[in-house]
Amino acid sequence: MVDGRSELKTYRSDSGELEVFIEAIRPPLSLIIFGAGHDAVPLADLAKRLGWQVTVVDGRPAHAARERFPMADDMRLYRAEAAPHEVSPAGVRAAVVMDHHYHQDRSILAHLLRSPVPYIGVLGPRKRTHKMLDELAQGGLSRGEAQLGRLYAAVGLDIGAETPEQVALSIVAEILAVSSERSGAPLEYREAPIHDSLD
Q1: Residues 94, 31 contacting (CB under 8 angstroms)
Q2: Which of 55, 64, 112, 136 is the most exposed place for a label (fewest CB within 10 A)?
Q3: Domain parsing of the chain, residue ranges
């Protein structure tokens, strides 16, 4: 397989040719949602409907409750004084910061920027995230291109989302586009084939 993609291969032997389809089965995309507010519920639900591995993290016992997120694979409750370092992002493909508490979001963002997570989304205005980045830089956190190239703030595609469900759709669509190395632009403008071809 090339680049983890499915392919059609032909094998030749003395008795003839054999055509074999080799299917790449990728592990589900893993998503950590930092924040268990009302707007995190549709995000966790939609991500899980897509077959993703979903973890929801919050420091409030009333919010990080299994009954609020029955679709999540894992619920994590962290201690405020240790957050977010109790949650390891190892192997995680995407993280979304939506705790809605400025200092907590800034601490989580710092933790994620030091991690290898390839997609880091931050809910809220771009100006708010830039203020966090300025403060983190004053504290010694590098603002290198490699780090900021993984940062999506404001998180989500520009589809006119207003409701929590619409915002969830815009976030999930952006994560999928980034992880698939696609632009998120309308298919009408795509010149290459829509689906990966089998050579």
Answers
A1: yes
A2: 136
A3: 30-179
Whether residue 102 contacts residue 110, with contact meaning beta carbons closer than 8 Å, is answered with no
| Cα separations in angstroms, 153 against 38, 59, 92, 132 | 20, 22, 18, 11
Residue 65 and residue 38 in contact, taking contact as beta carbons nearer than 8 Å: no
What confidence category does residue 147 fall into, taking pLDDT thresholds of 50, 70 and 90? confident
Q: How far apart are CA 33 and CA 120, in angstroms?
A: 10
Q: 30-179 is classed in which CATH architecture? A: 3-Layer(aba) Sandwich (3.40)
Prediction pTM value: 0.81
Q: At what angle do helices 164-179 and 40-49 cross, to 10 degrees?
A: 50
Q: What is the pLDDT of residues 79-110, one digit of tens each?
A: 655 655 667 677 889 999 999 899 989 989 99
